[in-house]
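Fig. S4 source data, part A: sequence.
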Amino acid sequence: MGPRMGPAGEGPQGPDKDTEDAMATKGPPGGKANPGPRDLRPSVFHSIKFFVLCHSLLQLAQLMISGYLKSSISTVEKRFGLSSQTSGLLAAFNEVGNTALIVFVSYFGSRVHRPRLIGCGAVLVALAGLLMSLPHFISEPYRYDHASPEDLSQDFRASLCLPTTAAPAASNDSCGSHTRAQHRAVVGLMFAAQTLLGVGSVPIQPFGISFIDDFAHNSNSPLYLGILFAVTMMGPGVAYGLGGLMLRLYVDIDRMPEGGISLTSKDPRWVGAWWLGFLISAGTVALAAIPYFFFPREMPKEKYELCFLRRGSAVSASPAGKGEDTPSEKNPALGSAEKRDGLAQIAPDLSVIQFIKVFPRVLLRTLRHPIFLLVVLAQVCLSSMAAGTATFLPKFLERQFSVTASFANLLIGCLTIPLAIVGIVVGGVLVKRLRLGSRRCSALCLLGSLSCLLLSLPLFFIGCSSPRIAGIGPQPGGLPGPGLFPGCMEPCSCSSDGFNPVCDPSTHVEYVTPCHAGCTGRVVREAPDSSLVFYTNCSCVAGGGPVPAGSCDSACSHLVLPFVVLVSLAAALASVTHTPSFMLILRGVKKEDKALAVGIQFMILRVLAWMPSPVVHGSAIDTTCVHWAQSCGQRAVCRYYDHDLLRKRFLGIQFFFKTGSLACFALVLAILRQQDKEAGTKTPPPSLGQEQQQLVSGPEKKPKESKV
């Protein structure tokens, strides 16, 4: 579940010229005198180390704001009545703007002021965060009991069992045009904000990586990039931690109703302050963007090597630090300024029309490589698994084990994300220290995928059974209606869309509202830290009650910790494949196509994995719903799920993607073995051996190509 690295190699090939200009400005000892004043007035904005610090903080803040929505996805669903399919589409919509523009990074990389464009992109990201929080301010205050009329206190008389003639049942079958228009505006704002977030993210990572690689010392570049990715990958963990803190606060903390509220964070109607995290994240991004408007377009090449930190590049959290001779060999995907004759190198000399015409040919040529295609398909499967887990795992834990959204986010932020980062680092260390060649890299990927698959099998048997809900059958898609509820509440006038659950502690049966339990009275008992609400005179409850407000406690909530530990270990094992699979791609294409191949790789991952996967997972979750809320005559948020079916389908999709990655890595290993056998029996012709020499380590090149 590590962060997704953008097509860094696409960007920034033009720095070849920029670097030469920067070197020319220094000149020989007897050369130009113009650089003298700048040398006499050193500025912190001419330090590549300061740029690395600023870019690490910016990318951390960017991933924090993009990951925060995933931490509060179930809360947004409840607040605005969204299905999981719609919320999954919302979470994936930031990839739309990103995918549409990312290919042109290699074209514009040499023609723009990269630090300034990074700053502009960060400003757009901050505006997207502000736009995401805007629906809270333009919407009416949250009413957790829609059955209550506006002039009555929430969950009071409207939730009680009253004669039909005394209080006609409220209904949400029809809504005014203003309500419908407001809902469409709110949802449209969130989709627009996600699109703007994707557009703003386009220049940040590729241009930042290329800028570091262009002006850092050749030996320091891998270290700087390793530090950059290590700090960046903390972003999702910070996002889940921030979500865990913000969702403890009530959504309308800025406009609390008179007399307060009677909800607790354990109540299924509780909605946390989801919007506050977006404001905090947007402010962080805006502050991190300020220094970029003061960095020069180019700066002098760093002269000194950090010898005492040279070993630090071995534990880089990304393939950025896995190199051999020069920055272009250490990481061809990161836009080094070395000589190339591929599309990325000639892009500055092409017009936009010529660039668009040339790109499809290079794309098809790259996709014809079997190793490249299979490894990318394996990464598509792993990325699909990661996208679905990152988006809906908090909601799954919340529903399956009856824990609060805040606690679920804290578990993921403290366990799953850190272990995934450790897996990426371990994979990079293994490739570096063991000097794995292509065949051994594929074997390591196969082993990691197999271990992840086997560790996921026990997850199917760890979970809670569906709660007993009076009047709601176990069949998915059940809608509330008079015939579904017990006959004891027939004299009552109960709203078809009311939701104020109460629990019968003697039978452990839950009722949708006190009205459906036949309760006619309400008692509030003051406690030291909160008020406890009980309902009395309940005709459907043995003895008449009293029954406490809120859902029934789950008998297996203690299983959430073992479940998250297994999920985290499986994520760590899957993350071990990150670095070796990346190296397989770099060795599986022609040298002149390496930079663009990485861009194509991440474009494919966005189109086939990060965009559709949240929608697929959300649609599967919706099929397990047994009781939908109704809003304006349409299906809104799901109230209750079939827990067993939810666990099987959610984990089943994950299992499918893990199996797909395992099969792809197995085919890669089989192809490499076959190529090794062919290389041992005959020598490839010189005209056809260029690509095979990048995949098969010959006897004369084994010491060199066995290193990463």
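Fig. S4 source data, part B ends here. The mean pLDDT is 78.
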